[in-house]
Specification:
This protein is mainly β. Helix content is about 15%, strand content about 50%. It has four helices and 25 strands.
């Protein structure tokens, strides 16, 4: 029969019987000659050529993918534009499949009908797929002490291995599993975590930023001495996430920006209280408080007077300046010493 529909049905039955392991016979009941080729391994996106040797006098040929017909002779039955006929002559029957994907994996059969008997050639196509991270934890913000789980799931063939690495600050490998468990996280474990999915084909790498919030910790205050009428600066530094807000107090009274000749400038973790023209009223105790949503911390400062050296203090030496004593007091102390020495001398007689 030359009916192509009949030929297609016959090929389908041939393949079905072959897959079931039953002997396949032609219309003349002669046993078929089946050949199994080596597997063809390709990467996703590549092109494969499927070649079938003809030989003898061939009356009908066809390429099939499982139970669907790709080509019957020169007639294309597949609607897939990636499949095309390359060669059809007495020596070979070759088709091309472009841009292979996982759905193309499986058995392909070339069915040939000769004058004597049907013959089939089968080959398995194995498609290798590079890794692709398909499910990844998003950017995470947690409070210090919380339990954290990072997830990274990947697809690919062969199945990729997944690992986690803390990029900053350490760069150490922290897990070789798709789940990374961090119990009671500390601020030292904050940073950028990298998930790497790797197989024999390629790798896929993506990062997750992990932020750990914690209450402010203020460094100890440093007392500052300033000469009357000069400029003075008190600096308050706080380590906190999120960044702290700063409040300044003199004794129990809160200080606001541009108040009584003072200026408050906050830059990140540092707050500066500047006195442009220090007066007697400015000397005293100051408190800096750093606050965020997790808590607060404070430190105290002393703004004290420093007396500029005068001609009399210079004659008395540096001790008088450091003690803050004036010239008159220095002279009085000197005269007292002389008087005691004179009295002691008189008592000897």
């Amino acid at each position: 029969m030359n009916n192509p529909v009949y030929w297609a049905v016959l090929i389908g039955m041939t393949v079905l019987l072959m897959e079931q392991g039953l002997p396949v016979r032609s219309q003349r009941d002669s046993q078929s000659d089946n050949k199994v080729m080596d597997n063809i391994t390709v990467r996703q996106g590549e092109t494969v050529f499927l070649r079938c040797e003809q030989g003898d006098v061939v009356t009908r040929t066809a390429w099939l993918n499982r139970s669907s017909i790709l080509y019957a002779g020169e007639d294309k039955w597949s609607v897939d534009p990636r499949v095309s006929l390359v060669t059809l002559n007495q020596e070979e029957y070759t088709i091309k499949i472009e841009n292979l994907d996982m759905a193309d994996e499986g058995q392909y059969v070339c069915a040939v009908q000769t004058n004597s008997q049907p013959r089939t050639t089968s080959v398995n196509i194995l498609v290798q797929v590079p890794p692709k991270i398909i499910n990844l934890s998003r950017e995470i913000v947690v409070n210090e002490g919380s339990n954290v789980t990072l997830m990274c799931q990947a697809s690919g063939k062969p199945q990729p291995s997944v690992s986690w690495r803390l990029l900053s600050p350490s760069g150490d490998l922290v897990s070789d599993d798709e789940f990374l468990e961090i119990p009671s996280i500390s601020r030292r474990r904050a940073g950028s975590y990298q998930c790497a999915a790797v197989n024999d084909i390629d790798s896929d790498v993506q990062n997750v930023d992990l932020t750990v919030n914690y209450a402010p910790a203020v460094t100890d205050g440093r007392d500052v001495g300033v000469t009357l009428g000069q400029m003075g600066v008190l600096e308050c530094e706080a380590d906190a996430v999120p960044e702290a807000d700063f409040e300044w107090y003199k004794d129990e009274r809160r200080i606001f920006n541009d108040f009584d000749g003072m200026e408050i400038v906050n830059t990140g973790s540092l707050s500066k209280l500047t006195f442009f023209n220090v007066s007697d009223a400015d000397y005293g105790n100051y408190t800096c408080i750093a606050v965020n949503k997790l808590g607060s911390s404070n430190t105290s400062f002393l703004l004290y007077v420093v007396i500029e050296p005068t001609s009399s203090t210079l004659l008395q030496g540096p001790r008088a300046v450091q003690d803050g004593s004036g010239g008159a007091m220095g002279v009085h102390s000197h005269n007292s010493v002389l008087f005691i020495m004179f009295v002691s001398f008189l008592l000897r007689f």
